[in-house]
Structures are given as C-alpha cells and as structure tokens.
Design a protein that fits this description.
The protein is mainly α. It is built from 24 helices and no strands. It is globular, with a radius of gyration of 23 Å. 53% of the residues are buried. About 2% of the residues have low confidence.
C-alpha cells in the first residue's frame, strides 16, 4: 500500500466523513485509524505495530515536533490576547466605532478583506487577528460567521503566497534548492499565481455585486432573518476600554511578530552572520519567531492595560485560562490533522504524487502548468498542507525545466504554488482552514461546506487560465501573464454575473 493510491485513502475518507457527518473530530480519527491499519498491514507489524504507529509515531511525535509546539503556543497566546481585548472592552469599543464609520454591510466586508490583505506576514497570524478584530463589526451588520470565516481564509494563504515578505515566501525560498535565488523565484511567480489573484477578485466581486450562492446563501439568508443583537464575543468585558485598547495590542502584535521572525533569520546578528531584511525573512523560523513576538506583545499588552487601569492584574491573569479554553477545539483539530498527515506521509503519499508529476512531464509541456495545478490541488487537499506540497513539487518543476529562460518553468512553479494554496483552502484538515474557523468562532464543517463552492469556482477558472498561460508562453512571460490574467478575470466575472442572474430567478 505504500507509494500507491491507497496512501491517499485515509485522508479522503476523513474528509468525506467530515462533510457527510458534519463532525470533524471522529472523522479525523477514523482517517488516522485507517492510515495506521494500512501501514501495519504493509509492514506486517501486527496490533502492537498498529497502535505504536498511530500514537507513538503519529500523535506523540507530532506533539513533540518543535515546529508544531511553537504553532500551538502561538495559538494559545493569541487566544489569551483576544480574551484580554474582549475583557478590557477594546473589541466592544472598536465595534461601536466601526458602527459609526462603517455604514453598510458591504463596507464591513470590504474592511475585513482590506485588513486581511494588510496582515500578510503569516496566515496563522492573519486568521486569528482578523477574526478577533472584525468579528464584532460583522456581527453588528448581520454578516454570518460562515461568511466571515471565508473572508478570513481567503485573505490568509492566498495573500501570503503573493506577498514577498511573509513566512510563505520564506518557505518557498527554502524549497527552491541549491543554486536558486528563492526570493527572486517567488517574486517572478506572483503574476502567474492565478488562484490567489482570482480569489481576491472573487471576494471583492461578491461584496460589490451583493449576492451569495451555494450553501453560503442559506447561512446569509438565515442570519439576515434574525435581528442582530450585537453579540461581540464569548467573554464579557469588565473594563471601559476604548478603540486604542484593541488597536495598540494588534499593532504591537504585528510589529513584534515581524521582529521575532527576522530575529530568527539573523537580522540582529553581528559580523558575517548578519542577514539583510529580505534574507532574514527567507531564513526565518516562523514558528519560533511568532512565539517570541506574540509573548512580547502579550507582556506589553498586560502592562499597557495595567498602567491605563483598564484591567486589574487579577483580571489579566484570569484571561490566561479563558484564552486557552477558547483555543482547545482548534488545538484538538490541529493535533488530529497533523497525526493524519503523518499517516499519509508514512504511506508515501507525496512520493506517489511526485511520480505522477514526473510521468506527465514528458509529452505535455504546454499543458503541464494546468496538470501540475490539479495535482498540487489534490495533494494539498488530501494532506492538508501547502508547504508539504511545495516541498515535493517545486524541486520537481525546477528539475524538469532547468533552463531559467524557459517561460514554462516559472509558470509551472507558480501553478504548483497556486494549486497547493487551492487544495489547502478547500481542505477540512488544513491548519489555515481550521484557524479561520477558530478566528470567526464558526462551526468548522459549516465553514468548509460554505467555502467549497467559491473555492472550486476559482479553481476551475485558474485551471483554464493555466492552459492559456501554457499556450501563450512562447510570447514571453510578461505578455503571457497579461493575456492570462485578463482572460481569467473576464471568465470569473462572467460566471458571477450568470450565477447572480440564476440566484435572482430562484428567489
């Protein structure tokens, strides 16, 4: 079963069960059990090998991984900061301020999108920060939590993958291999990252055209039928905070997370070890950097509230378990998702997909970007990881097209990146999808079900656009990018107009 289609079955079963049963914990666990069973059968290791592989090699190993622990700590610290901002009254004050300055439902959605684009440093940071800041505003304007989760998720990974200064740029640079300027490669790929670009077009178009389709329409209709009661957050405020009590912690968090990331990349080192700003990002350890930055921001926020006498020291300390408890569902889902990924990795899922890519590279050169896009989508969807998909497919693309002057080379690398983000965006077991649900305080399965039609729509348009990019690659990368983007955007807008007309008739 190792290195064959069977390696993808555990993830496929888990995803299918989650969508059918609308219950994610047991679905993920069933997928883990199937993965452990397949591995034990293949290795002939019996029951002891089955249990050891699931718990020792899988769950415990994932929780012992320093990167994963760093992400969990960062998640908890952000939860504590959200609890602090809520208890101080900062979120409520921002909601009241936004009520005066944001006049419409469309304005609230545009503000959410713009904030998501602004926070391009890291997708995890984006999900939880945008959610905590904008949730009171979107609640007041009758925007469903499912729509908020989509806006958060669609401005997390899709924005990070076209931002040269981000943890994602650093990851891609690291996967480029020896002899490659990873950041230069990343920048050259941006114009061909069609899924990310068209996702942004999709969000703005839906807001400006004022309609929804698929399951999202039913959630938006249901929330519109209920009078908004202005519920801000689960934590009651005890302080009479002002807008500054939300803005200051968020800005502090952004600044110190950036500093933390470039610190791990050697920006503050001395002598020959000192790295430039861009190189520091390329060499950063996002997990450690985000932990350092978030802890510094947490301490400064507590001191800030204490000096302003918004919260007592005891109130601040009470927010620590509150923030931790708020993040327990996300932590549990992440733990199970990571364990499921380890099962598929042990079954050779990545190697199986890599073989498919290498086998298709020979005779379909002009169509290879579209093929790579689909394969990257499938791998990221089944495994729930963009970065793992980068790691296996980008080196293959570079090896398949060694000439840096070949336009198909950069288009194929872009297709790999776009497909990975697309699959990650759609997958119920993706870290970013889970955190978008947590940031919006939305049921995870509902978020996946409402987001899928939108993501699939953009994926289909992106696939068609990669065909056009491949066929026009002989005209040069600049001309090919312009023709492709115009074609894809036109197809997407036409599709949305057709869907709006059909939705209006259905009413």
């Amino acid at each position: 079963m190792v290195g064959t289609f069977w390696s993808l079955v555990p993830a496929i079963v888990a995803i299918a069960l989650a969508l059918i049963t609308k219950e994610v914990y047991s679905s993920l666990f069933v997928g883990i059990v199937i993965g452990g069973l397949f591995y034990a059968i293949d290795a002939a290791s019996g029951f002891s090998g089955f249990f050891n592989h699931i718990f020792s090699d899988g769950m415990i190993a994932q929780l012992a991984d320093s990167w994963n622990v760093g992400i969990l700590v960062f998640l908890v610290v952000l939860g504590i900061m959200v609890a602090l901002m809520n208890k101080a009254g900062g979120s409520a004050a921002f909601g009241a301020w936004a009520k005066k300055h944001i006049k419409t439902k469309a304005g609230a959605q545009i503000a959410t999108i713009c904030l998501g684009i602004f926070i391009f440093i890291d997708d995890y940071f984006n999900c939880l920060t945008v959610g905590s800041v904008m949730r009171p505003v979107t609640d007041k304007y009758g925007i469903s939590r499912e729509k908020l989760a989509y806006l958060i998720d669609a401005t997390a990974a899709p924005v990070c993958i076209i931002a040269p200064i981000s943890s994602w740029a650093a990851a891609v640079a690291g996967f480029a291999g020896d002899g490659e300027n990873g950041i230069k490669l990343f920048v050259e790929a941006i114009p061909f990252n069609f899924y990310a670009l068209f996702t942004l077009v999709m969000m703005f178009a839906l807001v400006l055209m004022k309609f929804e389709f698929g399951k999202m329409a039913s959630f938006e209709k249901a929330i519109a039928a209920v009078e908004s009661k202005g519920k801000d957050d689960d934590t009651q405020s005890v302080g009479k905070g002002k807008v500054i009590d939300l803005v200051f912690p968020v800005v502090t968090l952004i600044v110190f997370c950036v500093l933390g990331m470039i610190y791990t990349g050697g920006f503050f080192a001395s002598g020959e070890d000192k790295a430039g700003f861009v190189d520091a990002f390329a060499n950063s350890d996002a997990s450690i950097g985000l932990v350092l930055g978030s802890f510094a921001a947490l301490i400064i926020t507590i001191v800030f509230y204490f000096i302003r006498r918004i919260l007592s020291f005891k109130d601040c300390m009470n927010c620590i378990p509150d923030g931790f408890k708020a993040m327990v569902p996300a932590i549990l889902i992440l733990t199970l998702a990571w364990t499921l990924k380890s099962m598929t990795d042990s079954l050779g899922a990545k190697e199986y997909v890599a073989g498919l890519v290498e086998g298709s590279a020979a005779g379909l050169k002009l169509f290879l970007p579209a093929i790579i896009f689909v394969i990257a989508c499938g791998l990221a969807f089944a495994t729930g990881t963009s970065w793992g998909t980068f790691g296996i497919l980008i080196p293959i693309c570079i090896a398949a097209f060694p000439s840096t002057s070949d336009p198909i080379r950069i288009i194929s690398i872009s297709a790999c990146m776009a497909g990975a983000v697309c699959g990650d965006h759609c997958s119920p077991i993706s870290d970013t999808t889970i955190m978008a649900s947590a940031g919006a305080v939305c049921d995870h399965v509902n978020h996946v079900a409402t987001q899928l039609p939108y993501a699939i729509c953009v994926a289909i348009v992106s696939f068609l656009t990669y065909i056009i990019a491949g066929l026009t690659s002989g005209l040069g990368t600049a001309v090919s990018a312009i023709i492709s983007i115009v074609f894809g955007a036109a197809v997407l807008i036409c599709f949305l107009f057709v869907m709006k007309t059909r939705t209006a008739k259905a009413k």
